Structures are given as C-alpha cells and as structure tokens.
Amino acid sequence: MAELTVSTPKKHHLQDRCVLCGMVFCNVEITPSGRKIKTSVNMNKKLKITKQTVDDLHLVIDMDLTSTDATGICIKCNRLVKGVVEKLQIIKQTLNESIGYSRKLTVKRLLWSPSSSSTTQQPMKKVFSPKVQLWPKTKLKSASELQTMIISPYGKSGNVLQEPSGNTCTQLSTGDNAVRQMATTTEALLQFHRPILPAISEQPNIPNVITETSDKQTKARKSLFSPVSGQATDKKGPKVESFQDFKVHPVSQKEITIGVYYESGKRTVVIENKDHIKMCKVIFYQKNVEKGLMEILETTSKDQFAAYAAKIVKNECETICKRHSDFALTDKTYEGIMEFSWDHLYQDLLLGAPNTLRIVSSMVTSSIPMPVPSKEFHHALFAIGIILHGRNREATTLQYLNGMVLLHGGCTHQDMKRLAKLGVCVFPETVRNKLQSWQSNLDEKLLEVKEKWCKGDSMTYQLVGDNWDKNIVPSYRTSKNSTQSIHLFNVIGVIDRIVIKKEEGTPVRTVDSMTAVDFIPSEGDIDSLQKELTFLVARSVIQNIKQMEDLFGKIYPGHLEHIHSNEAGMKTSQYSLGLFDCDEKKTADVIRLLQNLTEKYVPKKDGEIVEEVFFGGDRLTDEKIQVAQQAMRNADSGLERLEGFISKIEDFHRLMNFLEDMKRLAKLGVCVFPETVRNKLQSWQSNLDEKLLEVKEKWCKGDSMTYQLVGDNWDKNIVPSYRTSKNSTQSIHLFNVIGVIDRIVIKKEEGTPVRTVDSMTAVDFIPSEGDIDSLQKELTFLVARSVIQNIKQMEDLFGKIYPGHLEHIHSNEAGMKTSQYSLGLFDCDEKKTADVIRLLQNLTEKYVPKKDGEIVEEVFFGGDRLTDEKIQVAQQAMRNADSGLERLEGFISKIEDFHRLMNFLEAIHRLSYNTQSSRDRGTVHYYRNLLNARNVKGEVKNSYRANKQLYYTLFDAICCVLFLKKFELDSCDSTIPVPKGIKDWEADQQLQWLNDKCGEIVKEIFPHDLFAELQNVLADPDHEENYWVNSIENDNFKCHFCNSRYKYVTSLKMHEKTKHQVNMSAKVQTTNSLLRQTDELNDYLVSVFRLTALHQNLNSAVDMGDGYRVIRSAKFETPIYNRTNKVKYLIGSVHLTALVSGTLPAHQSKRLIANRFINISGGKNNNLSLDEFVEILNRDTKNATHGFQTKDSIVQHSKEFPHLVHAVKHFDAMCEVKKRKGFHKLPSYKEDVKKVLIDLLSINGLEVRPGRTLHCRKIVQKSSNPFSDCFVGLPVMIARHKPELPFRRLRNKNM
C-alpha cells in the first residue's frame, strides 16, 4: 500500500489588491497535484475604481491611476478618501464665506498731513477691490509639498498685491517666524476661518476720528479696550486709545469707529452690527461689564450661550466623576452608603460643580440658593444623582439606597429592573451582592465592645430575640405544593446606655432568705405607686379639662423624674445580628442557637465566662432558653451549660414600626404619594369599558361591529401576619371579566337556512371523510416544518422558502391586533349559583345590546369548562322568568381553547405516561429522564408547558425518523438523496416535492380507515351501542318488543330485561395472547405520535388564528375524552360541535368560529386563546394586589388593577424592559430532539417487530390506533348532551 503524504498547499497572491492598503482580494492555491485553485477571500470588500475615484486620489495624494478590472480599492480606504474630499469642499466653502464677510467690513485708511492743523476728516482710500484675488488658484499637492501659510494682520513685511488702480492690500506671506508648521492640507486650510484684514502703517493721533478729552493717565490693563491713552504694558501687543468720554464721529448713525495702535502703526475698523455696538458701549462705561455682556449674549446668541454653559457643566461633571475623586456619590463602602446625607452631597457639589448645581436648581425653583432642606432641595439633588449615574456607572450611592428601600418594601425584582432602566436604582442582583458583602458589618461594633468587656471595660451589652415565622403560599396550590411554614429566630444586640460599675465585696441577698411577702407590694411600693399615679391623674386632668390646660398646661412637667432620667433621653446603639435557622419550639434548635451565640458574643477569658449576658424576649423565649440550659445542666463547664446567658422577659412584644416605603420615594420626587395614585386610578374607573359601551350603542343601532366577554375565576389566599384560631388564612374568590372587540365582522344574512340539531346524528360528532382530508393537509405542513427545523440539510434547502403560516380563510385578519378591555374584578364565587346569577344580571344590564326592552343579539361569554357549565346552570335556574333578559339569555356561553389544549394533553398523558416505565426505552417517561426534564412532574395542569415541550420533542423526533426511513436511511447524519438540481427549481416545485414526501408519511400514519370502526359503529342503528338511543320517540323510550313506553331509559332497560330477557352488558374482551403477538413498543410510539400530532395541530391552529381548524379538532378529541373518561370536556366538545352545526344561526356560528382568539402583539402566528389571556391577566392582577389583605379592600379597588397592569406594560415598552424568561436556563430544543432521534434509530422503535413487549403494563396499547374501542358509551353520551338551544345546555335527565 502506498504511503500517504500530507503537504500544505502553496498560496500565491495575484496582483488583485487594494491600490492604497494592499488588501488581497483573491489568491491562488496550488494543491500537491499541481492544480491551481483561484479563491476569492475579500471580494465583498472590493470596489471598482471609477473616473471619480481616480480624480479623488489625484487630489488627495497626487496618485495617477487608470481604472482596470484587475485593480480596485477596498471599502475602508474609499471611505477615508471620500471623507478627506468632503472636508476639503467644506473648508473651501467656509473660506469663500469668510472672504466675502471680510470684504463687507468698512476699513478706513486715514492719512495724516503734517502741514494740516485742522481736524477735518481725510478721504478714505480703497483697501479691497473685487479684482484683487486673495486665494490664488494654486494646486495643492501632497502634505509634504504644502508650503506654510500665514496671515500678517500686524503689518509685518510681506508681499503686496497691486491693483490696477494702485490700491494695496496685504498678501498671504510665507514667513517662518510668525506661524507654526502645519501637518496636513486640512489643518492648513482650517486656518482661513478668520477674517483677512489689511495692514495699516503706523500713524500719529487722528483727532477727526476719536477726540481725547482726558489728560489723566492710568495703569494700562491687558484688555484690548483698556481705558488707557498711553503706552500698553505689553510691548508686543497693540497700544490702545482711551475710550473715556467716548465721542463718535460716524460715517452714518449706525456705526462706531474703533482705533487700535500697534507698534507698526494704527488700525481702525467700523462696527456696524447693533449688538456689537452695545457690547462696545458696555466695555467703555466699565460698569458691570461681564453682566452686561452676558445679558446681550443671552438675547442675541442663545445657542452659543447655552453651548458654552453646557461646556462648563461638562467640565465640572468630568472633574467630580473622575476615579478617586472622593465624591459623595462614588463612595460605595458601608460607611459611604449608610452615612450618606444630602448635606454631604450638597457641599461636594458646591465645591466641585457649583455651576451645575445652580443650573439644575434653577429648573426646580426661582429662589437661588434653594432653601435647605425643602422639597425642591431634595428633588434637585436627586435629579443630579440620576444624571451623574448616567455619566459614571460608579456613582451609585443614591441608587443603592433606593434599591434597598424598594427591596425592604417588597418590590419585585422585575419592577426594580424597570426602575433601574431609568437610573432610579441599581439592579436587584447588585443590591443583593452588596448586602451579602456587608454581613461581617452586622456585629462589628458589638464584637469590639466584647473585646473591651473581656479586658475589664465597664461597657456592656445584652441580646434580645424572638421567633420569626412566615407562611409562604404557593402561586398554584396542589396536593404536593402546599403552604410552607418557615420558623426562624431574629436576634439583636443592644449596647447598655447606663454603665454600672462592678463593686467588689458587695453582699448579695440569697433567694433562700426571701419569703412570699417579698413577691407582693410592700408599703414602700404602695407609696411609690401613689406618687406615680398622682402624676398620671394630673396629666389626664390637664389634657382633658380646658381650664386646667390653660392654668397648668405649660408648667406641669411631662416627664416623671427618676434616678436615670438624664440617660433616658440618650439614643441607644443597637445592631441586628440577622436571622438564625432555629425553630423556637424545638429544644435542639434552641441549644444549637445558644451554642453559636455563646461562642461569638459571651465575653470569655481563659475559657471562663467574664460576665453573663442578658438575653431578653417574650415569655416563650424566656422559657425555651431555660429549658435548653436545663437540658445541658450536666455539661462540664459553664460555657457548655449555656450559662453565658441570663434570660429575661421584656416589656413589650409587638412590632410597631411600619414605614411606608412609597412615601419615602415620594419625598425624593421618584413618584407621587400612594394616596395620589389611588385617587387618580379611582377617577379612571369609568374609562375601563368606555370604548366597549360605544360599540354596544352602535350594535344596538344595527352596526355590524360586535364584541364578546371572557371570564375566569380569580382566587387568592391571604395568610395572616399573626395566626390565631379566629385569624386564619382567608380564601378570596372573585371573577375577572374582559371584553374583546371581534376582529372579523360577520354580517347577518337574512333567509339563510339553519340546520336543526334534531337532524344531527352521532356520526356528525366524529371526524368525516372531509375532516380527515383536511387533517392530512394540515399534518403535512406540521411534519414538513418539523423536518426543516431539525434536519440541517432540509433547513439549508427549504428554511427560507417554506412558509411559516398555513393559510386559511381568515389569515389576513389573524395578524391584526385585537382591542380588549379589562372590566375589572367582580365579587362572585364561580361555584355559587346565586353569585353567578347576580353577576350575569349586572353584566346583562350593562353590556347586552337591547332595543325596546328586547335583546338585539346575544353576546358570547367564553371561559373554561367550569365557567361554561355554571352560566348554563344560572340560566336554567332563571328559566321561568318572563323575558329573555330576565332569563339571562343575553349571553351564550362557550368553551375556550387553552383549557381544551390542557385537558387534551392530560388525556394523552393518561394513556401514555407512567413513572414505572423508566426502564422501557422509547416511552415518554424514559425520555423525560434522558433529557433531564425535571420540571415534568405531577399533574399536567401543574406543569402544562413542560409536559407539552416533552411530547413535542418526541413528536419532532418521530417526524425525522419517518422522513429518514422514507429514504431508507438509518443515521441522522446521512445525506438525504434529493433530486439533482433541486436548487435550480422554482420555489413552488421545491415545496411540492417536500410536501409530497411528507404527505406520504401522513397518509401512512393517518389513513382514512383509522376512524372506520368508529364511523361504522355510530352509523349502524342495529349495533348494541345504538340499541337504546334509537328507541326514542317523542321524548319517550319505546320497547323493541311491545308497545310499552317509558320516560326514563333505566325503566325501559329493566322492562326488557325482566319481560323479554334482554341483556346488553356483555362486551368482547381482547385476549392477552393476541396482545403478545403484536409489537407493543411500535404500537405505543405510533399511538403517541398520532395523539400528539392532533394536539400540535390544535395548538398551531390557535397560534395562527385558524378557527375552522380549532372547531374541527373537537371531533377528533371527542373519542379520546370518552376513552379516558374526561366527561366534562367530552360534553364541551359535543356542545361546541353542536353550536356550529345547527344550534346557532349561520352568522353567529361564523362569529363563534372566526373570533376565538386574541392578538396583543400583531403577527399572523402570535394569536392566543381568549382564556389564556385571562389567565395571564389574572397573574398580573394578583401581582398588583400585594398591598391589600382583605376581600373588601380588593373589591373596593378592583377597577383600579387593570389600569395598573396597563401602566406597567406601557412602562416596559417605553423603557424596553425585557420580559422574564420562563426557564432559568433555556433548554436547547434541537439538541433534545436530536438525542431522542438517535435513540429511536438505535432501538428501531418505528419498525414492526412482533413479540416486542413493554415492562410497564399500564401504558400498553391494544393497537397502534388510539381510536379503537372509543365507541363504548359514546352514542348515549352524544344523545344525552346534544343541545337543542344555545342556552341551558344541560343533560337530558331522562337518559
């Protein structure tokens, strides 16, 4: 065998490079065999060299090029060249404008004649002429060839341009002593922004322009317009004439002439601008010059004035926000935050940013400086704190304090994140980290006192503790998820204010010498009590009798003096030591707590107790400490016997200090006070249904726009802060209602024939041939989408062309946003019929369209199955009322789709999931363990989305397996043999090929004969399942053998059993031997796939707003509900099919089908079922009721919560607050599908292998057809619950 050699291909670059930077656009690779391969590497960055590009390069760098196909310029170099060209054009335009401005100045050259002694004005010569060219057309080469250009305003020697008329003006000279060397063409050109003025030769005084009347000479200032007539102090600067007693001899009345002396001569200029004239006068009079100039600039140049003020503020903020600036807002230490004060911040701003403070303060108040402290003072400083936090992320002292206030008040993390977006506080995780880093600061001062105590110091302290109990109520209560009771222990340390020195040798009275008399009041005690009560009675009299108050109110003391009166007014130093894991009622926990506290806080020296520490608390704490000490009495030392503490009973055992955190923030201007918010929300209660009532009025007048109501129960448990036998957990039951405007308008068609329910048979409630055809098309779409999403090759081919939306009759409307209005919470317990009747009466009065006391049209009322049933029960209870309004017939209840999805998955779960099947590969529970889906547990209703995710993962994996098997492939990495040149096909042809392949898979899994057994049984009148149903005649049951008739079917059964010996209870059972001949694993997987496909079809129909597919799905659910004994949702499916098939008129039936969804974000695939939206609203509303602890308070403010929810959503959208994810770590769905796919291929689960069995017998299917044997009892259920009216759809009690 020849030896394999490996060599690196040689790479030869072509001459296809960027003409400036040399970037390679393509190269040549030579393989070991000598083959040349031309590879493009940066062709997407190559630009063709055009004539304009050649001209630009010639202008900028003097490069001569010709445009060829082999050369180019990269995007980056082209952008730089274009930038330089544009800057040159801007500079040239600015220069032309500057020259034009200079020409407009009236510059007067005054000549002095020695023979003339008069002060007559001399004629002025022209200095500028339009014929003079100040900018000669010289070509600028490169930066290295650029000559240095200067402007000579002081009359230095230089070249002079000659006019044809003989007039002169200063030319641009090239002297090296007057200007710095310029680096680039752009820098040189920028020097021409200043006006070009001519040089004026030195002349003596000119009395005809400026008359000097003052001979007094003063010391010259450095200012240009100094009031000095003598020589300037700076020899290099100009001599300035005196402007005292300023007199003007203007050419016109609107100009001032200014003269300035230089060493080389004098120059004068005429100021024509009115504002500039005002400035000259302000400078001349020398009174409040700066203020006068500022006032002029404030009115004439506001933008420039503001720009310079902004520059001052910017510089100040940069200075105080620098690192290590010792600014109050950047100190994030424990002392910096806990000792922060407004005064500290105010002083720092006065020193470091006084102008910033002045500007911000002027926005708040007109009185500068502000009154301290005041509301304006706090608001201004708080605003500065937020602004500086936006500039410097380290300036967070104020934000930390706000975050701690919010956490203390129970603010949720999501709400804190909302406020952190505005800079009000830091993120909750940041606050938690900061608090965690401060744990050692809790007892730092206390341990210092302990160390001194151990060394003999007289300062002491004591501990006080109490139990800390809390009940945590679950958001969703189940048998396993109940209320958690937490029992901890809170301890604080208190420094003794009154220092008692230890007196050695003081005799101690023993307890043995005390008698019972010592424990009752003595004579001295009674005397002391009399004096104390005298004080209390006197205070009471003074406070409650006006005459006594006038006489003694100001002189009677308010404090009864005692031995420690002076110390009683001193503040105490107390330190919270935190919560300890200790249940006070458990002695073992108390012992462990005392051991920890002894180790840390009892003063010790050489292993012995220096002095005992008092430990205070209520009577229970006192008792439990003594019990713990009693339990440890046999230990060796006092420390081990817990004798370092002496327990004592304290005087007051209640928490009294409840601070309102919202009021704290209102003080800073973060929000308004809570009462103000409540008043505003209360004033908006009428806005809840304002739009809905407008639609109702139009509906009453015949308009085609309609709406519907949706409701659900709203339950909440309120746990008391202190539980007693009478103060237990409150269960609150309310009802939440929303109104939804119908997106799709269905016009009422007169004369349309309506099919009656009587003409419907049991076959109409199960899938027909047309329904199966529609299902096959829909599942073809789902299988194709699954294959594209999970097989890389298919994703590359079809990912961008395969549609994401399955078109239906209302696809255009499915992407429209809906208009929904929350109507608030109603005091109604859904389980009580009287409450439901009262609710429906109130809603009928307000929302049912009426005309002349009659119902214009019924309003649909959606909800879950319980809501649907209770509304019908309420209507049944009011059936004997006089009118339709009183019979509550203004509403037609209907079952919504989210609860249908949940219960259908629960039915699938009953047939396919069992925790004992963990060792059966291919089962759902096995894949739950394989994927580590630990959130799949308990009942489906408690973890619906997790269960749905697991079943959909298995569905997608099976879709991929079936697709690979279609091409006889056994690996997910195998290449699928697609037709050659499929990429060149039209998109429709490519989609047709994929749909054909997926359609073949669907027809194999969902053939028409899948429902043949069910259809045959229900269509056969002689089948035993239809035996009793077909005997109904005129609401009576007729005997099959005689003319006897009975009202109840049970009576007929007994009659035929006793008289005619008829027994219909025997049923054929499938034998175990037959089951063992089948492939149980394959039957299981195919059955689960079929059921999950139906569920996903319903779920996608809801997402896409396809009402007809949703209604059609009820026929597929009915047999499964019957098989799994889910009676309530079996009845719901029968009702839903009957409503759209004959119970309702045609236009109402279409309304019921088309308007079953809500869309809050827009998009064809973003629809929600109505009851799912109510569930979301319930959750948000419960979050808004945290501050209410009684049912009355919640009901009182029930109309305010929708506004709060809407305001928070608006805030999230405004500040771009991201929603919380449903998972702590989002799972990789594709990776999970791939794991299941590989496992299914390895076990050949979808290949029929007779004799393969499952260990868990509870999930074994009789066949791969989940609809087999579903007919048992189904005809009777359909006949019993088939409704004749849309109201009172209760069962037929005769059956």
UniProtKB/TrEMBL annotation:
The keyword Zinc applies. PROSITE patterns: ZINC_FINGER_C2H2_1 (PS00028), ZINC_FINGER_C2H2_2 (PS50157). Pfam families: DUF6589. It comes from the Eukaryota. Keywords: Metal-binding, Zinc, Zinc-finger. InterPro entries: DUF6589, Znf_C2H2_type. The keyword Secreted does not apply. Residues 1037-1065 form the C2H2-type domain. This is C2H2-type domain-containing protein. It comes from Mya arenaria.
